[in-house]
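Same chain as my last thread, 66 residues:
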Amino acid sequence: ARMGNLDGFMIGRAAIGNPWVFLPDAAARAPGLPERVAVMIRHYRLMRESRPERQALIEIRKHLAG
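reply #2:
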């Protein structure tokens, strides 16, 4: 069976690991470690608003490892 057009899916996957992909100058501007850490902390805090701490830690670990 054909999967169809998966371009949107692939962009979504890219954005999970690199949310800066949508910036106009994304190819020229790679975020430094401090900026990446700040985004990861913010992401974890947002996850904690809707999940128990243990679940949020497990999920954030997946993002960090991927």
